[in-house]
Amino acid sequence: MDVVSPELNSLLPDEIMDTEAIIMDDDPPSESPAASGQSQPSDDSPVPMETDVPAVPEIVSLCSDAPPTQLTQAGTTSTPTGSTLCNTTSATQLLLTSSTVSSSSLTLRPATASTLTSTTPKTTSSLSRVSLTSGGLQKLSAPFTLSANHQIILNKVASSPGADTARSQGTTTTTTTPGGQQFMVTTIGKSGQPIVLQLPHTGSKSASVQGLGEAKANPQHFKVVTVSSASQVSTLQAQQLKTVQIAKKTQVSSAGPIKFVFTKAVNNKGLTAQTSVSNVITGRVLSTSSPVTPPRTITLSETLGSSSSSKIAISPLKSPSKLTVVSVASQVPNSPQKSVSLPLNMAHLGHQILLQQSTATSPAKTMKPVQTVTVGGVGAPQFKTIFPLSTPSNVQQIQVPGSRFHYVRLVTATTGSSTGHAGSPITNSSMTAKPMVVNTTQVRMSVPIVPAQTMKQVVPKPLTSSGQVLTTQTQQRLIMPATSLPQIQPNLTNLPPGTMLAPAPGSGNMGYAVLPAQYVTQLQQSAYVTLASSSGFSTPTGIQTQARLPLNGLSTSGAAFRPRKPCNCTKSQCLKLYCDCFANGEFCQNCNCTNCFNNLEHETDRAKAIKACLDRNPEAFKPKIGKGKEGESDRRHSKGCNCKRSGCLKNYCECYEAKIMCSSTCKCVGCKNFEESPERKTLMHLADAAEVRVQQQTAAKTKLSSQISDLLTRTTPAITSGGGRMPYTFVTKEVAEVTCECLLEQAEQAELNQQPQATAERMILEEFGRCLMRIISSAGKTDCPSINC
DNA sequence: GAGTTTGAAACT
DNA sequence: CAGTTTCAAACTC
């Protein structure tokens, strides 16, 4: 069974791995009776991450739109398709992402998809259709408990008979459908906390129990994994966001594995009934791919009128892979727009997040383009990543002085109905399980990005039919790096800025492509984008459109970004910090390096290299030039230079190169890079003078160029018109004849006077000079200059 | 453009 | 942690 191993999970940060939020501790018994009966109060206070998201009561449900105090329709456990998670309480919403591949046996029909988010009683009936290939009964085993109200309670305390007892930190429950599908619910993190999944009522299906080992026999697998959490701390409240993902594993079908991403927002603190809920998916999608089919990622997200958004993420990769998807918000139609501030400190998280953002006023059926990108060279491992089709308006570039990176602020294109408030607590709209709205304008997200340049070595592959992204999501998404890379995991926060971990084929748990954020940006600008509308599921007005965007990022506005100097590495394979590209968390592109491994084709090696660098220096990928101590406004080198011979007045010195003074942190010898240094002042003056010279030269060139252009403009018509002719045009046949006569006359004079030959030649030349002068002088006077000897 | 210098990174 | 080696950029000619 391809499940996140406990060892791997144990490496995940607590912020991510903490599944406490799943527990419905705060849920009133009336709201989740089953949960109350099974759950255990958690003494562990959630570890809020450095975010500003107000806390929201933790609610885990498998479908939305449940009235605030009303339990949702309970169903059978037969929906490994994970179709619906009903939010039984107001606080937290489990965002379901379901996916399907059209070519696979796992087919999700529009009608089915529409029911995914339906919270109405119809959900139950429609869910039966939602079941992917198997509509059979589900087997539930301890600690998988099916409550009376059709809630699946995952008691972490209890261990599944078939499960490995060593998994003390979580339990895994496998549920198998009659059709052979198997879906596993595993809780990662702290034990003793049940997870309550409230399922819609399908009526005819009973739960059965199956051990973990049985899953292997099943051709298809669903993996529900509580992957990670992202908590955000605001001045008011803190919120933990967790993700439950279900990955469907097809055995040998043409379609690749299908990943179901369940997103759950975990609230640590209770909120008022009208507090909106924000969902953030920070989990990983565990998927396996068929060895034959190309990677395929399909994301389906939809929001119905009063339902929460559901998403399906299918990413059949060639090998077990992980994809972190962050769902920031969903929309709340038919309800007052409630905003949720989800500041995500990228630096803190060390992740790259693909922000999914909903438009506040758009109907639930509003589609947000989502980009699926397949990258990798020919024959190289292919990667699929879901990217939002971000409009330029959603990204604000931020210039950080001294930073070698460019930052962007993801901005929500909120509409007038959006009522986002900075720092405002989350207003709960989950009482009705409505999609949540995130005002990302408040997202304190700094994602270092890099100029979107054409990838020399890695070119996004055009999507084929298998690489489409179908989405009904109206949210902007952030893809967070997969957090399960053991080697990198301990230092996730120190990954290269904007790094995203993407699944890498054939590398098992190592299979991650550490994508520079800029690459994502580049992909966003260059990759083919498949636009799909969820309305195809919910409304007839929906359209599915595919738009091909230019592959070359240079053709986009992103090309205007800072061009990076190409490296010339020869021995480091561009996997050492010697390489500026690598040190900046960038892929090499348009470089002059040889034997370069700093690309997606060698993502495994690259990941190892990153890990090695982080092991040596956890700060390796952090900007060296940062803010000084508190009170110091000047930038300063975080580590300081160690110059010996340059006097810190050459670009060998990192301080000087960064145009900053050396500080006390420097260990340089003979430093002259300080404020009062006369050498430095001289250099500065020289530099200023040089700059002035350059400017003057530039201006002169510009002026000269302008004059030449003007001259050509003036003279060109003159040649044909006769006015203002070029000088040579005055040397007509007549003029030449006259001139020759003059010269001959001089020769005759010299001969008559018996002048020496030298004198004769001189006389002739002088006459020729005079003739030329006459020609020139008369050029501007008359059209037919007369030359007289 | 080739060769040298330099200092950070990597290694021991 | 210090000393040495490696490396690529900066610099010089």
Automatic annotation (TrEMBL):
Residues 563-676 form the CRC domain. It is found in: Nucleus. Keywords: Nucleus. Residues 24-51, 159-181 are annotated as: Disordered. The keyword Disulfide bond does not apply. GO terms for biological process: regulation of DNA-templated transcription. Residues 33-43 have a biased composition (Polar residues). This is Protein lin-54 homolog. The gene is LOC106568323.
